[in-house]
Design a protein that fits this description.
about 30% strand
Length: about 70
């Protein structure tokens, strides 16, 4: 099967700011962070299944995602 390059857009997500106490002035009770969503049949075709565990290795301007061995929780 031909593997094609995927082009995705980094979105944002937010979560409550730790230790923030809203006093009615300035600032925000939420912190915005980068967010990436990967989904699709192409992941299954590469061997990834629901319930699998993965490891993400951060490199400069690169993420390496590998499937952990024997971790399927089905």
């Amino acid at each position: 099967m031909e593997q094609r390059v995927r082009k995705l857009k980094i979105s944002y997500n937010s979560y409550p700011t730790r230790g923030y106490r809203y006093m009615g002035y300035g600032g925000s009770p939420y912190t915005s962070v980068p967010f990436i969503r990967l989904r699709g049949q192409w992941l299954r075709n590469l061997g990834f299944e629901e319930g699998d565990r993965i490891t993400v290795w951060p490199k400069k301007k690169k993420l390496i995602i590998t499937l952990d061995k024997k971790t399927r929780s089905k």
